Structures are given as structure tokens and as C-alpha cells.
Amino acid sequence: MKLFSTLFVGSALTLALSGCFAAREARVESDYSYAGAFRRYRTYEFVTGEGLAADSSKLGEVLRDAIRTRMKVQGYKPSKRRPDLLVNFRVYEGDMRFRGYAQEDIARWVTEEKIEDDETPAEQRTGYQPVRMLLAEGTLLITLIDNRTNRAVWNGYASGVTVPSGAQGEVVLRRSVRSIFDQYRVFTAGYLDGNSGE
């Protein structure tokens, strides 16, 4: 009987804790530009300016470090001289209305080597299907910008991100960056084949 009650309490506790963790999970989405030349991008640099991107605080540095790690894992190299991509990030407090797009998976788009530009005939264009969203309290937005065209080519965002103070806040931000970049399954050309250009 004691074993049964211990198992019951243990199971109930596990179920309750898993419910708490599930309730804290952020909504993670992404969208991309059909004009993005994803196979061409190999280098990146962070946008400088105001906000967290220029922030030298601990949390700003944690975000930059987490993004650097993911970019490296996917074969991208930092470059201050004419980078292919500019990386921008921002944390928004409160709820936010956001317009995203319903699109096929970016990995499929890139694998099929699709790209649309001004020369693409209108009847061959994929077209964007806008989706209006209400992003919950606390949104981390990461944007990749084509440095040549100065246009955003990918947005990844996690909403419902509450950043507590201290070390736990760093963990939350790193997990959020990892979850966002899980949506960007694009590796530099040749990287997975061991031809990283070195």
C-alpha cells in the first residue's frame, strides 16, 4: 500500500511539474523572404546602434554569444568587413501584434534552390500569405538582413519569453535563441560536406 501511494504521489508530482514546464514554453515561429539568397550567405556581423543590439549589459552579451554559437554551428563566420548578413535582435516587453507569413519550411525552399527577384515573372512568384498574430508577453525577435540589399531575409521570434534576473535569465535567453534558430535550418554551402572554405 505504501509503495502504491508513493508511486501515485510521484506520478502526480511529475504530471504537475510537466504541466508547469509546458505552460512556460514559448511560441516559436519564423518567416523568410523569397528573395533571400540563402546559399550565398557565409559571413555575418551584428547590427550596431541602440537597444539591446548595442547593449553592453550582461543580457545583451548573453544574446550575442548565444547567436554567435548558433551561427558557428551552422557554418557562418563573423566578419567585420562586408559581411553577407547583418544580425539584429530585440526583446519586446508586453503583448505585441505581429504580421508573419504562412510559408513552406525554409529548409525545403533552400534545398530546392528557389529564389525570387525582380526578374521573376508574376505568375511564377510564390506570393506571401500574411498571418496576423498576437505575441504574448515578452518577445525575442532575431532578424537576418542581407547586407547587399539591406532587406530582411529571415525573422525568428519567440513569444511568452519571461526573463528572470540572474543566471536563470541567461538560461532562458540561450534556450530561446536555440529554439528560434531551430527554425532556421540553413547551413552555409558545403559546410555539411566538410567544405567550409578553410
Description:
- This protein has a single domain, classed as Double Stranded RNA Binding Domain (2-Layer Sandwich), CATH 3.30.160.
- It has four helices and eight strands.
- Helix 2 packs parallel to helix 4 (167-181).
- The chain has 198 residues and is an alpha/beta fold.
- The strands form two sheets. Strands 1-8-7-4-2-3 form a six-stranded mixed β-sheet, covered by helices on one side. A two-stranded antiparallel ribbon has the order 5-6.
Give me the CATH architecture, please.
2-Layer Sandwich
Q: Main sheet: which strands, in order across?
A: 1-8-7-4-2-3
Average predicted local confidence, pLDDT: 80
Terminal Cα span: 65 Å
Oligomeric state as shown: single chain
- Supply the number of structural domains: 1
Write the H/E string, N to C. Answer: HEEHEEEHEEEH
List the helices and strands and how they pair.
Layout: H1 2-23, E1 27-32, E2 43-46, H2 58-73, E3 77-78, E4 85-92, E5 96-101, H3 106-111, E6 130-135, E7 139-146, E8 151-159, H4 167-181
Parallel strand pairs: 2-3, 2-4
Antiparallel strand pairs: 1-8, 4-7, 5-6, 7-8
Helix pairs in contact: 2-4
Summary tags:
single chain, 198 residues, alpha/beta, Double Stranded RNA Binding Domain, six-stranded mixed sheet, two-stranded antiparallel ribbon, 4 helices, globular, disordered N terminus
